[in-house]
Known about the structure:
The relative contact order is 0.09. The chain is an alpha+beta fold. The protein folds into six domains: 6-97, no CATH class; 101-176, no CATH class; 188-363, Rossmann fold (3-Layer(aba) Sandwich), CATH 3.40.50.140; 378-417 and 664-760, Topoisomerase I, domain 2; 420-469 and 598-660, EV matrix protein fold (Sandwich); 476-593, Topoisomerase I, domain 4, CATH 1.10.290.10. It has a six-stranded mixed beta sheet, with helices on both faces. Strands 19-18-23-20-21-22 form a six-stranded antiparallel beta sheet. Strands 14-13-15 form a three-stranded antiparallel beta sheet. Helix 1 (6-20) packs antiparallel against helix 2 (27-39), helix 11 packs across helix 13 and helix 13 packs parallel to helix 26 (748-760). The protein is built from 26 helices and 25 strands. Helices cover 44% and strands 20% of the residues.
Amino acid sequence: xxxxxxxxxxxxxxxxxxxxxxxxxxxxxxxxxxxxxxxxxxxxxxxxxxxxxxxxxxxxxxxxxxxxxxxxxxxxxxxxxxxxxxxxxxxxxxxxxxxxxxxxxxxxxxxxxxxxxxxxxxxxxxxxxxxxxxxxxxxxxxxxxxxxxxxxxxxxxxxxxxxxxxxxxxxxxxxxxxxxxxxxxxxxxxxxxxxxxxxxxxxxxxxxxxxxxxxxxxxxxxxxxxxxxxxxxxxxxxxxxxxxxxxxxxxxxxxxxxxxxxxxxxxxxxxxxxxxxxxxxxxxxxxxxxxxxxxxxxxxxxxxxxxxxxxxxxxxxxxxxxxxxxxxxxxxxxxxxxxxxxxxxxxxxxxxxxxxxxxxxxxxxxxxxxxxxxxxxxxxxxxxxxxxxxxxxxxxxxxxxxxxxxxxxxxxxxxxxxxxxxxxxxxxxxxxxxxxxxxxxxxxxxxxxxxxxxxxxxxxxxxxxxxxxxxxxxxxxxxxxxxxxxxxxxxxxxxxxxxxxxxxxxxxxxxxxxxxxxxxxxxxxxxxxxxxxxxxxxxxxxxxxxxxxxxxxxxxxxxxxxxxxxxxxxxxxxxxxxxxxxxxxxxxxxxxxxxxxxxxxxxxxxxxxxxxxxxxxxxxxxxxxxxxxxxxxxxxxxxxxxxxxxxxxxxxxxxxxxxxxxxxxxxxxxxxxxxxxxxxxxxxxxxxxxxxxxxxxxxxxxxxxxxxxxxxxxxxxxxxxxxxxxxxxxxxxxxxxxxxxxxxxxxxxxxxxxxxxxxxxxx
Length: 763
């Protein structure tokens, strides 16, 4: 019986949402109804009936469910669903669903905390209805638990497990009877430090509802994970930076050594400018309102002093390693038991695994980041001060990556004015069309003059079957390119959205230049395809060898609908439409990379455009004219076959466009160029483009990066006076040197020495 109880309605809705979609105009409205029911699930039916306002809101929801449950066609589909079980008794329909939170609570009680630790526990599930059991496994996954259920017959050491349970019980009994007086406190305390508040919340929520405390707007989350009481706090990114005044732009020279000098960050709340600790008024906006990270350091020291252990869980790249190193330096006098955690995805399983697999700070990574920071400061500050002084404008800047990239954009615009061609689109046979390129103006004039006498001849020269392999999963540059081409999201927006998805535990680390897929990733693809009843498409690939990072992929076998349901079940904020679109792009690309090739029929064809019988354009090209098996393309839909028939067609219409051979750069294509030429890194691509836009060196016009007069003026000045410092070669050499420093193949002091001579020997 469908009644007015929000709890029962919510349970029915969450289970039947796939079948309820046809009753809604869009998924958003369905999600809003689910959120509404979840919000009021504490109310009993009588309370709803007494409140006219809530009753009126529930009424249309209730009617949709009643309509669905009387539709025999839909009921038959539900009965065939491998995860839903509907039974009929005495003319009444019952939907059987699992209780995942009930299972977690019940199975947790099989193990107890006692003075020597945790007792051994064993959870046995008696499965009477396999559909309900499948439902339980899926819902457990949605609330964050990946449990590997095993058949009892598959457990070879069952007797040993039961023996250990009995031994623990005997010890507990002796404690209770006073026979054992020894006490070992099994619970330790620890502090886990991450960069972002979202990441801190996500980790804390893996282990129930955390308690919270705050100090000067810094929140600490506290949870229990068995034998540890865990405190989690975020630094909100970097908390120290090079000083401004000392030595050479913050780097002291002592004999043959260069010593970078760092101090806590002080940031103007009004304009965001970083200032020295000693500054009391911002020189740009005159504000005296600052965000001083000395307060954070003071609080972290206090927390470190309270706990047994400190874990540094900053991002798994050189920048994250440098933040971890800074934390180590500031906290070591207060707690020497400091460990490094390297998490490549924010999931419960990954956290628990990495929590046991800690390591020391990797000083090679720290030195590589120090080299990057010092080189940015030396080249950037020296050139920036020069142009600020010359052009009398404090908002100008230059840099070892941003300035060469600006040069590419300017050169591209110059080439676009010179190199031109014609694109002809010719329509035939009921709005089919074919595009032909040519350069001669005479041909364009002939086509226009003879528009009623145009013919298109297609000859098939050769046919063959060919398998087309899928593209690899995303790395950073590919993601930025596809996000623009498919979703029209610029690089800055894409990286911010990806950061949110990473911190919510939905994708792996998004700043990567690796295509590698781990064993876990391949198993995840298998699990996803099994859920979609498409396991026949599975064709796993590693796409390379293990390295520092993986590709960008989902962390769970979740569709967009699953993510929305997870947010509702966990009472989290539902992600924005763009978050979900980007996630779906990443999911489809990853699953396609683990799917079978597409089987196609290809043809080598000759295309001849004629005026009457005179050929004016001839071209040979290979085309796909039939897909035999879609394979990976079921997820990407990028293979577009054309209808093919040997024939001479009349041209019904045409369009000629004069185009440049050089297309203006978009954010995505400039990132692709940076990757190809070895400038910048996944963590800096977006920042470089954003800086060029903020300085008004380039503007965005319909998604294209167009250089401004100011950008051209600045670049020409620097090119004339300091060609060596703004050359691609300098930046490329530094990037290669930093890679060698990371691999412990090169001393960073030697790199700084060479750079010092190049910069300060010129400036």
